[in-house]
Specification:
The chain is α/β, with parallel strands linked by helices. The protein folds into two domains: 32-160 and 294-307 and 317-382, Response regulator (Rossmann fold); 163-290, Response regulator (Rossmann fold), CATH 3.40.50. The chain is built from twelve helices and 17 strands. Strands 8-7-9-10 form a four-stranded parallel beta sheet. A three-stranded antiparallel beta sheet has the order 1-13-12. A three-stranded parallel beta sheet has the order 3-2-4, with helices on both faces. A hairpin with a 2-residue loop joins strand 14 and strand 15 (369-371).
Length: 398
């Protein structure tokens, strides 16, 4: 039988533990007294940023492009108070369940600070609640779903919204192309259906009712049935909300259903060289939207670095690479303004301050223009640029 501890010994142990606990608290800044209230980076560890999106599968061009551009930015960042930045890249294949797994993993890492992304709207919507609970800010270069900035404090984006894109596209069809017999087709996913609905609603607000409103199943190789249904409505133009793979199938099958020469108008999700490669001559005359920034010394330097690093032109895969580069740099800027070096040599980054700091970004000069976030996390209110495929290239329409 063990001899019970004396009262003096118990008091001594309590005093000792109290001293240790007090010293731990003394080393941390006041903002970090509560467990989980700060990211804590110890000497020798790195400040972690994450980029998440599809890097394999049908939509890999978007996630890969964002990851590669973010890496250019993060690799060029100078250490802060002796702490280097590190980029973590995770493949979600664009699936919401994979995005949740990635977000959960990062939320458990005390050295993880912020997210460049996610990439697609559907996966982003699934991951937001996890980052909201963990107070980890997001700054997406490409997730444009109109609903993403509603009901949370952590999601922000530097790309224009689907609402602006959809409205601008509908008005372009009506005012510039002078077409009113519009068939609308979408892939049923958050992004594609969301933007198609905005196009439809904008047309209706102008007194123009679409001649057809249809959906398709992503990933199939034959859409002749739905295209035959659309052909019976005799549209002047087809608006498609969705991504590259399905748009290529649609373009390749128009002539099979008697709609050869009927133009297609699509979104920034389908913009890029991959569509032209898949559709070939059938890509000619297809309209698309993008947000390629204007020429500047900074953009030229990034473009040169991208070409040198990856052996292909910036924007050749997707149109978000410049936004990913800016997103990484904006987050690093907020970290530098928020982080506190503790007396113990640890770097403390208050999570609540990070969330508020990203949402309060104002006047940041990036290669995509001035980045200023409003109270909802919309950091770029500029609309898309319209393009048309001519002679095998995306060009500005006349």
């Amino acid at each position: 039988m063990k001899k019970p501890l004396s009262i003096l010994m118990v008091l001594f142990i309590i005093s000792l533990l109290s001293g240790i606990w007090t010293s731990v608290f003394a080393a941390a800044p006041i903002e970090c007294k509560e467990p989980g209230s700060c990211a804590i980076i110890k000497p020798g560890e790195t400040i972690k940023l994450g980029v998440a999106g599809p890097m394999t599968g049908e939509y890999a061009m978007y996630g890969t492009d964002n990851a590669e551009s973010s890496k250019i930015a993060v690799d060029a960042l100078e250490p802060f108070n002796g702490f280097s930045f590190e980029l973590l890249a995770e493949d979600t294949q664009g699936a919401p369940e994979s995005a949740v797994a990635v977000a959960s993993k990062w939320a458990m890492d005390p050295t993880f600070v912020a997210v460049i992304g996610h990439t697609l709207s559907g996966e982003t919507a699934a991951a937001i609640p996890i980052y909201e609970k963990a107070k980890i800010p997001m700054l997406s270069p490409s997730a444009t779903g109109a609903q993403l900035t509603s009901g949370n404090s952590v999601f922000n984006r530097v790309v224009f919204t689907d609402k602006i894109q959809g409205q601008s596209s509908a008005l372009y069809i009506l005012d510039h192309l002078k077409m009113t017999k519009v068939a609308i087709l979408h892939d049923g996913m958050d992004y594609g259906k969301g933007i198609a609905d905005i196009v439809r609603d904008t047309l209706l607000s102008k007194g123009v009712e679409p001649v057809s409103y249809e959906s398709l199943t992503p990933g199939e190789a034959d859409y002749s049935a739905v295209l035959t249904s659309i052909a019976s409505k005799k549209p002047e133009i087809i608006y498609y909300g969705g991504y590259t793979a399905e748009l290529a199938v649609i373009a390749n099958q128009l002539s099979q259903v008697g709609m050869e020469g009927i133009p297609i108008f699509s979104d920034d999700g389908a913009f890029g060289v991959e569509f032209i490669e898949k559709a070939g001559k059938n890509a000619e005359g297809v309209y698309g939207t993008s947000s390629i920034p204007p020429t500047s010394a900074e953009k030229d330097a990034f473009d040169a670095k991208y070409l040198e690093t990856y052996g292909r032109a910036a924007g050749s895969k997707a149109g978000y690479c410049w936004f990913a580069f800016d997103s990484a740099n904006v987050l690093a800027s907020v970290i530098r303004n928020t982080a506190i070096l503790g007396d113990d040599g640890n770097l403390y980054i208050p999570r609540e301050a990070m969330v508020k700091g990203v949402r309060s970004v104002s006047g940041y000069k990036g290669i995509t223009g001035e980045i200023t976030c409003d109270e909802n996390g919309e950091c770029n209110a500029s609309g898309p640029t319209f393009y048309i495929v001519k002679d095998g290239k995306w060009t500005l329409p006349e």
